[in-house]
Structures are given as structure tokens and as C-alpha cells.
Design a protein that fits this description.
This protein has one helix and no strands. By secondary structure, the chain is mostly helical.
Length: 71
Amino acid sequence: MIMMMLLLLLLMMMMIMMIMMMMMMLMLLLLLLLLLLLLLLMMMMMMMMMMMMMMMMMMITRTFLYHHSIE
């Protein structure tokens, strides 16, 4: 009888452990997805910044050129 109880307990423990492992795996996957999303966002932001910088440079150079040409 006691052995049976122990076995049941062991089984329960195993089940709980398995569930915990699954949860951990899911959490890890979610974290990875979040990280990837963040990375993508960062890349987009960087691209936007670069574009803005390029535009600014173009504008500045244009104005300088115009000023020089006017002079």
C-alpha cells in the first residue's frame, strides 16, 4: 500500500516536472521572440535615423551649394 502511494507520488512529481519544463520552454521561446522583435525594431529605427541623417546632409549641402553659387 505504502509502495503504491509512493509510486503515485513519484508519478505526480514527474508530471509536475514535465509541465514545469514545458512552461520553461514556452517562456524561453516567448523571450526569444520578444528579443527578435526588439532587434527588428532597433534595425528599423537605425534605418530611419540613417535616412534622416542622409536627408539632413543633402539639405545642408544643397543650401551650402546654393549659397556659394549665389555668392
